[in-house]
Amino acid sequence: MKILVTGGLGFIGSHTVVELQKKGYEVVIIDNCSNSSIKVIDGITAITSKKPVFEQFDLREKDKVVSFFERHHDIEGVIHFAASKAVGESVEKPLLYYENNLSTLVYILQQLTQKGASNFIFSSSCTVYGQADKLPITEDAPVKAAESPYGNTKQIGEEIIQDTCKVNPSLKAISLRYFNPVGAHPSAEIGELPIGVPQNLVPFITQTGIGLREQLSVFGDDYPTQDGTCIRDYIHVVDLAKAHVIALQRLLEDKNASNYEVFNVGTGKGSSVLEVITSFEKVSDQKLNYKIVGRREGDVIAAYADTTKANSQLGWKAESTLDESLSSAWKWEQKVRNS
Ligand code: WQD
């Protein structure tokens, strides 16, 4: 069975390709390599001994999307990762984000709705909740005014899919709202490859640990939390990848599934920034050089998932601990820097 993975050379995409191949799916990747490297194909192949089919083009080119689906008319499912995802950049360049994240989604859905039965998994984000009033966060928590154009593209993207499914009963879709994906494949053949200065906490920690960065700045320790630093739900990227395969299988096999559903994908456990630092120091057996600085604009105090729905309806549960996630991230950082 052939599955299209857009953005399949990216961090979460590449780990999902590996899990799909392990389950026997034939995978086709589309990636424009704007935020990923073609070398990731070698990493995937090293893990699974199966080289995925790869086409490099930009999904904003509608005619290329149309011709792709003409050539691959036997695509049974699409997992759509391809999008710009830097919150800060989205504030500076909103039109880039609205064009890239939304026009590409529309072009793909147009092809799927012309095909008849099809299955679609959308990469969404807990960012749609903003600062939730109640923790842990359930799927029926209100979707709040987006804190950034990036977050808004995830909210609008979910609405586009929902509206399309309403009038196309043969299109079945699931939006997965990720919490904070971290870590790397245990083989260290694939992992996170941030371009430039990492915006996210864990890659900045590992780059500081390896000496690439001088010091980690902790954005605020005056929040109303146990140790004053923000709390997030850090989920191992392999656990997250497995959730995509299980969600796809639900669409392919469970005839009772409604044709549009949303699931939170997290561990259900909140960890503070200082707890993540402590975990890194433990797994790397070294002290991390960091300092407390002012708060970062737009940060929510705390966000962690209520995973009851995914646990019970998908039969999926995150397995890796924070230490295991940080340990895999550290192993990957050492591999990348020493290769
Ligand atoms: C986590 C915590 C920071 C860096 C973002 C997006 C979200 C998703 C994941 C795409 C916060 C603190 C961070 C640093 C720090 N992306 N921090 N020093 O902001 O929760 O989520 O990435 O889907 O949509 O919003 O993740 O890793 O940036 O920050 O103190 O150098 O670490 O303040 O409390 P975030 P993050």
Automatic annotation (TrEMBL):
<comment type="pathway">
    <text>Carbohydrate metabolism; galactose metabolism.</text>
</comment>
<dbReference type="InterPro" id="IPR005886">
    <property type="entry name" value="UDP_G4E"/>
</dbReference>
<comment type="subunit">
    <text>Homodimer.</text>
</comment>
<dbReference type="GO" id="GO:0006012">
    <property type="term" value="P:galactose metabolic process"/>
</dbReference>
<feature type="domain" description="NAD(P)-binding">
    <location>
        <begin position="4"/>
        <end position="326"/>
    </location>
</feature>
<keyword id="KW-0413">Isomerase</keyword>
<dbReference type="Pfam" id="PF16363">
    <property type="entry name" value="GDP_Man_Dehyd"/>
</dbReference>
<dbReference type="GO" id="GO:0003978">
    <property type="term" value="F:UDP-glucose 4-epimerase activity"/>
</dbReference>
<dbReference type="InterPro" id="IPR016040">
    <property type="entry name" value="NAD(P)-bd_dom"/>
</dbReference>
<dbReference type="InterPro" id="IPR036291">
    <property type="entry name" value="NAD(P)-bd_dom_sf"/>
</dbReference>
<dbReference type="GO" id="GO:0005829">
    <property type="term" value="C:cytosol"/>
</dbReference>
<keyword id="KW-0520">NAD</keyword>
<keyword id="KW-0119">Carbohydrate metabolism</keyword>
<protein>
    <recommendedName>
        <fullName>UDP-glucose 4-epimerase</fullName>
        <ecNumber>5.1.3.2</ecNumber>
    </recommendedName>
</protein>
<comment type="similarity">
    <text>Belongs to the NAD(P)-dependent epimerase/dehydratase family.</text>
</comment>
